[in-house]
Amino acid sequence: MGETLPAGAKAPADPAASASAETLVEIAGLSRRFGALPAVDDLSLDVGRGEWIAVTGPSGSGKTTLLNILAGLDRPTGGSVRVGGVDLAALSSRELSAYRQRTIGLIFQQFHLIPYLSALENVMLAQYVHSTTDRGEATEALERVGLGARLGHLPSQLSGGEQQRVCIARALINHPPLILADEPTGNLDAVNEAVVMRLLADLHQRGHTLVMVTHAAAIAARADREVRLEHGRLARPAETAADAVPTLTEIWHLLVEEQSSVSVARRGVADLLSEGFLFFSEGKIAFTDHGHAHAAAAVRRMRLAEVLLSRTLASGGSECGGERPIADGFEDQVCTFLDHPTECPHGRPIPPGICCLRPVEIAA
């Protein structure tokens, strides 16, 4: 492209040669203010190479601002951001454009496809901006996301899920080491959400680093790590500690399955309230959306373990809720292996996961 980087900076085209083997993104004391309003406030965070990070938090917590800074679309007010060893603050606007082309793949909630270009042409346009077009490579990228039969279709002729898959193919066409996704399933129904999440999981398995903004706790649970922002700062990690799982499953059984009440004095309830898993609604304890998703996931892992042990050991095992749960992140594989059971051996329902949806022929 002809761009030159500042003296001492390393080109981001090959991050493996310019950063440690462990860390791709290094954020230190990052701040971004809009007038007197701090969108990001003294944020420090490292993202490992090949890691999948889910960034969550309420609206206005700084999630999209963080993504825009990582993409080189916005500049910080203070602190530093290094990606692949490159200090983004040291790059000119022209150099930031080259950085985005070489290093970043962007996936948005709004698809941002050119309406008068076909799916193939939209992907080839991303190639053209980077260097030169390659029709065969663009075709292969669309085939990889199940759109080999939709190459000549305009965006208006594609479903929302198909348009998002075009965006994924476009984001990947230049083989970026870092993929930034802003609510990538926010406009999709459950079936298309499952298809897109499978594609993102496949990218993660192939070694891409993903930073994904999402409001959905069930989507965030698919990532390696959840980073929650509140008022532009890191909040207490939202992941459920192992010793909280029994409490979550007990409360799930009472609130969701038995439709009974739970006392605030019950052991563990105060901690779950403070962590945002529970709240008061009309004088009663109830799950927040975030807590509901985490509790359902905990119950699912516990009851899948019971089914697995029951079938492999041909015994009833421990009392209901007494088995050690399936390790977080492996539940879909176990569920598929067991052919998606709907009940534990004791007759209690198993909350379904994304893998339990009716299989979709994504190439249709």
* Biggest sheet layout: 6 strands, mixed
CATH superfamily of the largest domain: P-loop containing nucleotide triphosphate hydrolases
Query: What string gives the helices and strands in order?
Result: EEEHEEHEHHHEHEHEEHHEEHH
Q: Indicate the proportion of strand residues.
A: 15-25%
CA radius of gyration is: 22 Å
Class derived from helix and strand content: alpha/beta
The low-pLDDT segments are 1-21, 359-364
Q: In CATH terms, what is the fold-level topology of the largest domain?
A: Rossmann fold
**How confident overall, as mean pLDDT?**
80
Number of helices: 11
Strand order of the largest sheet: 6-7-8-3-9-10
Total number of distinct structural domains: 2
Number of strands: 12
Name the CATH architecture of the largest domain. 3-Layer(aba) Sandwich
Folded structure, characterized:
With 364 residues, the protein is α/β, with parallel strands linked by helices. It has 2 domains: 15-234, Rossmann fold, CATH 3.40.50.300; 242-356, Arc Repressor Mutant, subunit A (Orthogonal Bundle). Helices cover 34% and strands 18% of the residues. The chain has helices spanning 63-70, 93-103, 119-130, 135-144, 160-172, 190-205, 217-220, 245-257, 269-274, 289-313, 331-337, and strands at residues 23-34, 37-48, 52-56, 78-83, 86-87, 104-107, 178-182, 209-213, 225-230, 233-234, 278-281, 284-287. Residues 1-21 and 359-364 have low confidence and may be disordered.
